[in-house]
Specification:
This protein has 14 helices and 22 strands. The protein has helices at residues 5-19, 74-83, 175-181, 188-195, 201-212, 221-233, 270-281, 285-319, 322-334, 367-404, 406-411, 415-427, 463-472, 500-512; strands at 23-31, 34-41, 44-51, 58-62, 87-93, 99-108, 111-120, 127-131, 137-140, 241-245, 248-253, 263-266, 345-350, 355-360, 448-452, 455-459, 478-482, 490-492, 522-528, 532-534, 543-545, 549-553. The longest helix is centred in the last third of the chain and has 38 residues, at 367-404.
Amino acid sequence: MPNDALNYYFIAKELDERLSGRRIEKIYMPSSGEIILKCHSSGASCFLLASAVSSSPRVHLTTIQKENPLSAPSFLMHLRKHIGGGIIMNVAAEPFERVVKIRILSKNEFVACEYLLVVEITGTYSNIILVDADGNISEAAKHVTPDVSPKRLVLPGIKYTPIPPQDKLVPSDKRLIELISHFDGDRPDKYILSIMSGMAPVTITECVTRALGSVRKICSPSDAEAVFRALNDIYKTEKPCLIRKDGKYIDFYTSPFLSVDGEVVYKDTLSECMDLYYAGKSSYGETGEKLKRLHSIVNTAEKRTKKKIEEFVLKKNECMDYESDRIKGELITANIYKIKKGESVVSLLNYYTNEETEITLDKNKTPSQNIAAYYKKYSKKKATLEAIDKQIKEAMDLLEKCENMQLAFELCQTKSDVEDIETELLKLKLLQNKENKNRKKTDFSSYLSVTVSSYKIDIGKNNVQNDRLYKSASDKDLWFHVKDAHGSHVILHCDMLPPDDIIASAASLAAYYSKNKMADKVAVDYTYAKYVKPISGAGLGRVTYTNQKTLFVSPKSVLDFS
């Protein structure tokens, strides 16, 4: 995503138009490094999200409802005290920097005073800083001490210093024309990135593509001038959009990029694009960080289980000759009178095959001890084979469950969804239960839902939801699941049998939210919910069903019905 200075140039303009003159009615802090300002004017409210979370720093208007911690953090209390009830005067972006400044007129003990809320969107070093009228830092989401960065401190009471500018040119600097015209390489976009600040690599590539038709060598001064114009003209074009692939939003842009493939979905505002994009990525604050950690646990378990299965199979192959050890023990027993202590190899007639069989002996053992050794090896290998089949089955089952959870991670959107995944990991014993008994429980997570011609269709986003979904369905509801593959449970709510096209729509959703979503046609089973029963001891979401019918449909996501 081009989360660069160009992006925040347009975001700042948009926020200035929407927020100027609005009162800050409430301030929330859903997670560390993330605040939401509820701004009110003329009976209408909107919510401004500012995030300094390193995995997803940003600022934009949002419609996503977020939960708050039980105890208010000190930074939140400070903001409520100093800018709560204040009026937003204006919003502006620092030229060619990923910094948005929100000027607020507030009251301090009945005396009007100005504050500047500075949102620095700079990756790991992102921050939200409240600056007072004297230019001093009043408080910050992240304190930067001398041991962290001696060059730029961020601490209450000291003078606020802007982010040091990069030693590079800005897009409006005409010296770029000469530098670009003298570049003799094949990738002018990479060269421009090295000498110019303010744009992400994908944005610079887009500007070169718009100017030259493709990313190619600069052939003349006119080529350099065309690129320079494109670098500046992109600031004049605003058509907010998202790029959608396979039913998912994979990126957002200030205007459609010729250099990027995918379906273009236009929206009225850039904030709406960003809100939809980040909602799909599940990168909201600590929830996103926790989701990454859980995903890492599943991936690690998957790798370890695959390695275990390989070791089990190798060990099983080593034990497959256990009958050979028994036969050797029998042959030595039958011919014990011929064998002397100290022999290391003997050749004996195998009465099973009527052929001579060469048998290795331990020369330090008596013939009787060698017999005992071969029978011991036989018993050990046989017992290992009996145990290892069970171990392989258990490992294969765990591997399947880990692989099946990947869909849950793709569909995860809320804190409750993350908790559902956490619940399943606890049941799989991939996670230790360190739950704080005093922690506030999150309400049940919501399913993916869509309404098709007044019929509501719910889709489970994980196995906890799948389990809950079919158990709570009424007998007349229709239950859908992809045939012979992992996928979400889908419930079509109805009082009587719906039309065929509605049934086909529900089946297409079940096809999409499954392992087979990339296929042209997918087999989907459906039956009444009353015919769906849990498999005892098989785990969450594992069911058996009867009286089903099968449809072959093309996969469709909920976005195809919106």
